[in-house]
Protein: Phosphoserine aminotransferase
Amino acid sequence: MARVYNFSAGPAVLPEEVLKEAAAEMLDYKGSGQSVMEMSHRSKVYDNIIKEAEADLRDLLDIPDNYKVLFLQGGASQFFAEVPMNLMKNKKAAYIITGQWAKKAYQEAKIYGDAIAVASSEDKTYSYIPDCSDLDIPEDADYVYICENNTIYGTKYKKLPDTKGHILVSDVSSCFLSEPMDVTKYGVVYGGVQKNIGPAGVVIAIIREDLITDDVLPGTPTMLKWKTQADADSLYNTPPCYNIYICGKVFKWIKKMGGLSAMKEHNEKKAKILYDFLDESKLFNGTVVKEDRSLMNVPFVTGDKELDTKFVEEATKAGFVNLKGHRTVGGMRASIYNAMPIEGVEKLVEFMKKFEKENTK
Ligand SMILES: Cc1ncc(COP(=O)(O)O)c(C=O)c1O
Structure:
């Protein structure tokens, strides 16, 4: 059966090469006579898998030694709670609300302390990134929180906020490893892997060592205390072993493709093809201000709901799947993560051109 072009926002397309390799190793991983799904997480062979995955990620992002890498569970949504539990010493934090995921993190933090929205783009359906050059951040705020790439709305910070010396915490779920990133600018960087890195079920967190302490909010469950996980090298309990193994394969694939600078180039090329077409199209329009456009998630509309539905239906039949936009934006959204080949975007644009011809007078 032919594979489709999958524009899902997540879980999302993975490199075909990785899937084939995993298939070949399914019954017998490197002569162990077992699938990675079946082996003990305490075995030597699995220890090599998780250690190599971490080493490759450190290499890709050039992660300094004073940052820990944790492979966690619970999705990015559970991490929304882990951030205040582990960091809210003064019970105060500043949140920048650039979409639903940032808002959910902010609402979660409110359970634990005084979460303050210091900027928001909710007034225009989150179609832009607010000016973050001079925010009113309380002196005693424990951290500043952002969602760096807004999966639903298709915006991305091109410049990080001026946190005025406060720790920056960033959710990079939908832009993880899509381009180089200077880890030293952050206290905590984290993301669910189900978009650019692997199968749902793993959150990768990169945390500056001094932020990992026993001084957490009272009542923090053992499992959600970063120190528990850091002290055990992410093996405090049984981790999502197979999923981490796939993440490791994706890290190797990115390295083979030339690393994060090459990924950025590849992603810019793809995004340009789609945005250039949206800018000249008489039928389709992008929904985001140009300067804040994401390289990963591209929402667009025709302005006519029935026509949007027709487009999604016809696209699906033609092998371009998961293009329906989020209900809060409507229309369509093409997520073009690392593993989406250029050819997928070229063919989508060809299809859009044909649809435009057939549906404009
Ligand atoms: C930017 C961002 N943050 C958080 C989440 C929530 O992730 P999870 O479903 O792993 O809790 C998503 C999910 O799509 C997301 O795109």
